[in-house]
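General statements about sequence and structure are easier to judge against a single worked case. Part of our work consisted of pairing the sequence of a single chain with a tokenised description of its backbone. The amino acid sequence and the backbone structure tokens for this protein are reproduced below.

***
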Amino acid sequence: MVRRARSSPASAMNSPLSERERATALQVETAVLQRIEADDLLLPSLPSVVLKAMALLGRDGAALADVATVIEPDPVVAARLLRLANSAALASRQPATTILHAVTRMGVAPLRAFLIEISASAVFTSRDPAINAACAGLWEHSVAVGILARDLVTLSGATDPETVYLGGLLHDIGKPIVAAMLLEAEQRLLGRQTISWFGSGTWVRLVQHTHRRVGVALARRWQLPATVAAAVGQAGSSYESENFLCATNLVRLANAQVKAMGMYVGTVDDKLCESQVALGSVMIGIDQKQIEAACDGLGERVRRRMV
């Protein structure tokens, strides 16, 4: 995973627009903003298998055997669950060979996070090749932020690592949704004769300015904890000064560190990221050397998680 500044959508922000492109971008921007203001968003729903499993996990005294029964018929979810349960982070001498064994090894909170992760990964895909390429890089970045944010929970003495992981994992989930809305609006206005989404700096700025609102709406639609929605909505803002160890601060620090490492699609302000990491480490109470140690092998951990 490397920083791809030249080919990323962020690199389009300074590219000049033709008069026709400016007019089209303005029409699309108006249409998208109107839908967001009216809460007229076609947000993806959780897959049925995830909904059923989450419902079971939400009950007091949830029976993991019932959750395993729901997951078993879905080959994609079952295969990824077994792979994760047998990963280096969770593996024991005895490999998990059944879904029941896997869900028992995972436990309720990590299993819930895994189910949301499965659902979120599907959002970062698109039929449009240009958007799909950007989404793949965004998903890698998001997984890295989630993993590092969860590590920071242990280093800082904070609580609820799975909630923090989800906040990091979903902090950019509004971007592919807004990109899909832009493509839909463009095609509705112009039919098949469309301008390139990547050729419009105005559209890139629109994604940057609106994706957090959309991400928060999705987190609420999926009935995720309020702390997760807050981390999604505020990951790009300043640190919270009243609750240093809140999920938002941990995600904010992880996001800045991952960007500073070059694990991002787009251009990065290195000085800004460095200052954010320095400030966050002081506020949260983690030495920067500890953060750097937590980043050792992060790229490989991300690749294993995405297989």
User: Anything to note?
Assistant: The CA atoms of residues 259 and 268 lie 7 Å apart. The chain is about 65% helix and 0% strand. Confidence is low (pLDDT under 50) at residues 1-15.
